[in-house]
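Interim report to the steering committee. The following record documents the input for Demethylmenaquinone methyltransferase (233 residues).
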Amino acid sequence: MSKADLSKKPAQVAEMFDQVAPRYDRTNTVMSLGNDLLWRVATTRAVDPKPGDRVLDLAAGTGVSSAALARSGAEVVAADFSPGMLAVARSRFGTVRNMSFAEADATALPFADDEFDAVTISFGLRNVVDPKKALRELLRVTRPGGRIVICEFSTPPNRLWRAVYNLYLRRVSPLLVRLSSSNPDAYDYLNDSISAWPNQAHLAGWLREAGWHDVEHRNLTGGIVALHRGVAP
């Protein structure tokens, strides 16, 4: 079984996600104690897709987030660099008429300039080898006035809550993963990537540096997760 590391070599990370794809959603729900469902609802509301919009859901994984966006009537492209994840997504949501699938590298997206009204990525940006380049690519494919929504693990601002969360990541989460995942070792990397990820202000700075305007964020679950938003100039 494959386990990636914080060098985030694309082939290695993709192989790891291929292996965890069959039980990925169940493991996420167990690890997050069910909060992943609430985070997904918050992300969909932040994207606010409308009928006729064209939306890119990058790092779409098994397609659950893309299907939620597609229920609005928007045309949604579920993109991921893991063929295994996309295979699961197609098997579950391949009959959704306004949803298509694309294998895509976040640092070199196979889409035209100004192609999307909204772009979103949930729990995927921290797995990209060059997240700053990915943010620039997402801007390139977004029309002027279009929007970005990023849902990603972050840093709880409250010191006590942060200590509780870090204890959970180190001690409790690995036990839950071993009960629910087909590749428990892979989640050692995922926990490491959460701990190494920058805080809310740092990610907001990356968005502005990439060229996004009106950047703001909102904490979810006390800052365990943050929703970042921005607008294409």
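Strands lie at 54-58, 75-80, 99-103, 116-122, 142-153, 213-220, 225-231. The committee is asked to note this result when reviewing the revised timeline.
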